[in-house]
Amino acid sequence: MSKHGKVLVAMSGGVDSSVAALMLHEEGYEVIGVTMKTWDYADASGGKRITGCCDLDSISDARNMAVSRGFHHIILDIREEFGEHIIGNFTTEYMAGRTPNPCVLCNTFIKWEALLKRADMMDCPIIATGHYAKVRQENERWVVSRGLDATKDQSYVLWGLDQVNLARTRFPIGGFTKARIREMAVESGFPELAKKSESYEICFIPDNDYRGFLKRKEPEATKRLQHGVLVATDGAVLGEHDGYPFFTIGQRKGLGIATGQPLYVTDIDPSTNVVTLGRKEDLDKQSMWVRQPKFQKLPSLQGEVEAVTKIRYKDKGTPSTLRMDGERVRVDFHAKVAGIAPGQSAVFYEGDDVLGGGFIDRGTP
């Protein structure tokens, strides 16, 4: 009989989730490890060598570690849901001229739901993951906050988790640095885990070539978009391109033209297949719209709220004022921000706590 009951732990095969499982096992929980099979490796790789998280080797590594410590391990096939909601959204967003956030969607709308569904089936009251983040209850609200290791903090991708999900979630490694987690893997007898390299690619695009992926997934649509127009901010035609889905806001390299000065993608118009290029300062904006907002620390957004807003994962954040305007949040930054990309997540912080977040929308207030 375990001391603390059952916990379902998401295990990717990497050092973070493995150490999270080991920590809970040593604390006296009955750990059940689950590794999710999210995609068809051969189809997504385009024939190239597969590396990174979620591959077959990682699934095997997770199972072997669990078996070696005597706790149960299962493989959960969520390829259908993943393909429909994550890969489908990824292609839809790029074809709409936006830059998607597949990791946010996967964490919020696929993995947590799949984990909790399986946890209910196995009588596990809580689930745990290897995210570098923290969760606590305050004023009857469950709140996500930054992990101790600022260089690895993953609170940004967790803004979409609702109160029901957060109440049943634990992040065992959130109070540790990555270096310490690697040390713990060695101390626990798994030095090979400590040596595992990080994967920064999108899991279903292991070669990091999203343009090639789009061409394979949407061959007819991408062919029709060839010979689009590149224009300057004043409307002057600068050249042609192979389709607006192959560009992102702020992109500087791979524009296909030489002008003698650095140019950046400042706007993408899917209705006309026109991509606008400008100077670096043309990327600067001081306000934006955020659609489909969700809040964690706050039950809702009332009046004006001061927050630090991050517009991408590695963004340090910028002080801003938030207020609801219809069904969207208007964000007014206290300083100009460069490279606001529709489709990316905007996450609002109060200190280390996540207030909430949403998806950056088109247009400027």
Quick structural overview:
The chain is of the alpha/beta class.
Number of E-type strands: 17
Using the alpha-carbon principal axes, give the shape: globular
**Which strand order does the major sheet show?**
12-15-14-13-16-17
CATH class of the largest domain: Alpha Beta
Average pLDDT rating = 91
Number of individual domains: 3
- For this structure, the CATH topology of the largest domain is Rossmann fold
Instruction: Calculate the terminal CA-CA distance, rounded to whole Å.
Output: 59 Å
Tally of helical segments = 10
Helix content: 25-40%
Low-confidence stretches: 44-52
CATH homology group of the largest domain: HUPs
Largest sheet descriptor: 6 strands, antiparallel, barrel
Strand content: 25-35%
The radius of gyration is 22 Å
CATH architecture of the largest domain: 3-Layer(aba) Sandwich
What letter string, H or E per element, gives the SSE order?
EHEHHEHHEEEHEHHHHEEEEEEEEEE
